[in-house]
Automatic annotation (TrEMBL):
Species for this entry: Hydrogenophaga pseudoflava (Pseudomonas carboxydoflava)
UniProt-listed InterPro entries: HotDog_dom_sf (IPR029069), MaoC-like_dom (IPR002539), MCH/BMMD (IPR052342)
Residues spanning the signal sequence: none
Domain MaoC-like: 21-117
Protein name stated in the entry: Bifunctional protein PaaZ
Pfam families in the record: MaoC_dehydratas
UniProt xrefs under CDD domains: R_hydratase_like
Length: 155
């Protein structure tokens, strides 16, 4: 695991158009199986090698939500990260299968900055994000909407 070297940001520290690329994550069969055990989703294409090899994927593939979970975790390991806030939701698309030995990273940017109307002291940010494999292919993409603390005294 990578330890981020930059301090966590308040909402006020972000700028529209800021970008970041995360550290990498290597997908293993063991990690896919652990995710299956964690979630209880033992669909054969994720856990049964013979079944998966005979499927249209031709091999074991990770769960779609495995990819989203990894994308979110990679963002928290990035040099550009916010103080803990509240997730407001995701819009996420699954474009390509994630396979064993894929090396993934996340590219994200900052948009949609606005102060919260319902919670003084908080701001809203949208993070368009792409989960990218070692071939430069975007395997998943979408947006994460977050509510982030504002810098004390900045509002």
């Amino acid at each position: 695991m990578t330890t981020p070297s930059m301090p966590e940001k308040y909402w006020d520290d972000a700028r529209d158009g800021d970008t970041c690329t995360s550290p990498t994550y290597t997908v293993t069969k063991e990690r896919i199986l652990a995710y299956a055990d964690l979630t209880g989703d033992h669909t054969p294409v994720h856990v049964d090698e013979a079944y998966a090899n005979a499927s249209h994927f031709g091999c074991i593939v990770a769960h779609g939500l495995f990819g989203l979970s990894i994308a979110d975790g990679l963002k928290t390991q990035s040099d550009y990260r916010f103080l803990p806030g509240m997730s407001l939701g995701w819009t996420w698309d699954f474009l390509l299968p994630i396979k064993v030995n894929d090396v993934l990273h996340v590219k994200f940017s900052v948009t949609g900055l606005r102060p919260s109307k319902s919670r003084p002291g908080w701001g809203i940010v949208v993070l368009p994000s792409e989960l990218v494999n070692q071939h430069g292919q975007v395997v998943q993409k979408g947006e994460h909407r977050l509510m982030i603390p504002r810098r004390p005294g900045a509002f």
